[in-house]
Write a structure and sequence with these properties.
By secondary structure, the protein is mainly β. Helices cover about 10% and strands about 45% of the residues. It has one helix and seven strands. The protein has one helix spanning about 1-10; strands spanning about 25-35, 35-50, 60-65, 70-75, 80-90, 90, 110. The strands form two sheets. A five-stranded antiparallel β-sheet has the order 4-3-2-1-5, with no helix packed on it. A two-stranded antiparallel ribbon has the order 6-7.
């Protein structure tokens, strides 16, 4: 039964998204519908963590918005509203979930991963 469910999930999984991990700086382009118009808005920030598996997999992105207020958004990997995800910087962190950046005042410094 589990193999059957996994094969059905593979149909809905998106193959065009890049490999992302915690600490990466990403720009997520999201389709937003306002009335009868549709536009693309970019959300740029640091990936705090990835949760779930299969079609329920999602990632959390945090950025510091206006007046120093932190904004977090959760994006499902299988969402049709995701236009594209660009990895701007690969971050080097030692945790799977970097929730500690919520408590950091000012700019968050994460070392860059070298290839």
């Amino acid at each position: 039964m589990d193999q059957y469910i996994r094969s059905l999930e593979n149909e809905f999984m998106r193959q065009d998204l890049p490999e992302i991990g915690p600490g990466d700086t990403v720009r997520v382009s999201v389709r937003i519908k306002e009335g009868n118009k549709e536009r693309v808005q970019a959300f740029e920030g640091i990936v705090m963590g990835i949760r779930g598996s299969g079609t329920g997999k999602s990632f959390t992105v945090r950025r510091v918005g206006a007046a120093g207020v932190g904004v977090e958004r959760i994006f499902p990997f299988t969402s049709p509203s995701l236009e594209k995800v660009e990895v701007l910087r690969k971050g080097k962190v030692r945790r799977a979930k970097i929730y500690y950046i919520r408590n950091v005042k000012g700019k968050v410094k994460i070392k860059e991963k070298r290839d």
